[in-house]
Every structure is written in C-alpha cells, then in structure tokens.
C-alpha cells in the first residue's frame, strides 16, 4: 500500500490534507508536537521509521514579521529542515511535495510570475523559504515544490479571512492596504492539488498491451520540479476584505463594518517588506488539474459557507494553531 508521510499536519493546509490523503493510501501525520523541525536527527529518524513513498511537507515558519527578529529559527524550519527531508526522501526514492510561497519574489513584475523568473525576496521569511527551495533542488530531482500565496482556511487560529471576520464584527470602519496585489487561495484547494499530484505520480505507470516484456510503460509525463498554484483572479487586500464582508453578510454572519477605506503600504508599516505584486502564473499545472483553478471569490464563498456551519456546531471541529 502507498504510504504517505504528512509533516505539518496541524496547519491550515495540513488539516485539509488529513481529510484527503487517507483516500490515497496509508497516511502518517506529524505535527509540531510529534516532530520538532529544529532537530535534524529527529527528522531523519522519523522518515526512516515510516519509510514513506510520498512525503508532503506542509509545515513552515510563517510569522512573516516576527521572522525579522528570529531569522535563525525561520531558517531552521524553512530552509534546513526541508533540505534534510529532501535528503531522506532521495534515499528512499520517495517523492517530496513541498509548499513554498510567492514571497520569494520582489513584487516588481508587471505580469504574473513564472516559475523560471528570477527570485529576489524582500523579507527574512521569503529568504528562508527560497533557501529551502534551493536546498531541495540541490539534493535531487524527485520533488515537487508548489509555490502558493495568500493562504486562508477554516482551520488555524489566525489567517486574513478570520481576522477580517473578527474586525468586521466589532468595528464600524476598517483601513485596509490597497496597493499589494495577489491571489487569495483556499487551503482546501491547495490540499486537493497536492492530492492530485500524488495520484498523478502513483498512477503514472500502466501496463501496455504492446509491451510484451512485462515492464511498465508510462502514459503520463513525470511531474517534478517547481510549480505555482493559487486560485484564479487577482485582488488587493482591500478587494479581498470587501469580498469577505459581503459574503459573510450574505450568509448571516455578524458584520458591523460600514466603511472600508483603502490605504497604502506606507500607511501601514510592518517589520517585513511585502511584494507589491505577487500574482503567480499557474498555467503549467492546468493539464494535470484538468482545468484552471476556480476563481478566488468562488473559493472564498465555499470557505465561508463551511466556516458558518463549523461555528454553528463548534463541537464538530477544533480550532488549532497553524503549522503552515
């Protein structure tokens, strides 16, 4: 049976993967309580113990601003740990699927970033994630690095959608940055994409009637390297906020906000610099997915519908801290 090791099981994407991966094989899930990503030998021992065919690394240090004052910790989790995971995956000939970020780019592009575009991260967080990508690539070719952006979901204590729902229910006026552009992406859609990539790789070999030697022939190309995945469409944080509160109000969720004012990045200084434009070109992934990703507004609506049901029945789901 296919054995899949999930690292970062308690994060936004990790919790979604826990619902998807068991359909693809035997899943072993590790979170920060069962695997300390700052301990190299613990990482090696865990992977050697489970001998997986696939490793999904959904864990990351994602406190973008705090990383500016904790660069060593960010580097341990986002750069050193993925490199060690890749080394162990290579030794097992296991496929590593690793999540990365739009923050590896500087935001000065005039079009969606392609995989091959030069990277120039502006923050410690972005630098640490890029270092993780480079470490994985140096180990070998059997990996998929999936860059994504502006991730939100029903799980985890904090994300932008949950923050806006909280502020929108308590404040009449919000001031939201309008000059940073990206693609909001639902954690569920990221998890489903990772599942599709595993399925693609697992089912790649198929017996052929013409092959009389009995050896498998391959009717699908190998999927490895770096890809981009986000929901379709673009938005500013201001656009995203307007949509969140409109959809929330339509679902009957509490919304007190009457005014949402657009502001600039300069009006809202943060410790870490963010790219002003970080839209990712995900077209190379379409043949595998079978279609373009759904629009971010559609995904947002689905997430809020799920969230409204979850808070109506709080015992049906727990809200835990995010690993990714």
Main sheet: strand order: 2-1-3-4-5-12
Taking Cα atoms only, what radius of gyration do you get, to the nearest Å?
Answer: 20 Å
Query: What would you say the CATH architecture is?
Result: 3-Layer(aba) Sandwich
Task: Name the CATH class.
Answer: Alpha Beta
- Please indicate the percent range of residues in DSSP E strands (runs of 2 or more): 15-25%
> What is the 3D form?
globular
Q: Which secondary structure elements does this structure contain, and how are they paired or packed?
A:
Layout: E1 3-7, H1 12-20, E2 26-30, H2 40-50, E3 54-57, H3 71-92, E4 95-101, H4 124-139, E5 143-148, E6 151-152, H5 160-168, E7 173-177, E8 181-182, E9 185-186, H6 187-202, E10 205-206, E11 217-218, E12 225-228, E13 235-236, H7 237-250, E14 259-263, H8 286-289, H9 296-312
Helix pairs in contact: 1-6, 2-3, 3-4, 5-7, 7-9
Structure explained in plain terms:
- It is a single chain.
- By secondary structure, the chain is α/β, with parallel strands linked by helices.
- The chain has one domain: NAD(P)-binding Rossmann-like Domain (Rossmann fold), CATH 3.40.50.
- It contains nine helices and 14 strands.
- The protein has helices spanning 12-20, 40-50, 71-92, 124-139, 160-168, 187-202, 237-250, 286-289, 296-312; strands at residues 3-7, 26-30, 54-57, 95-101, 143-148, 151-152, 173-177, 181-182, 185-186, 205-206, 217-218, 225-228, 235-236, 259-263.
- α1 links the parallel β1 (3-7) and β2 (26-30).
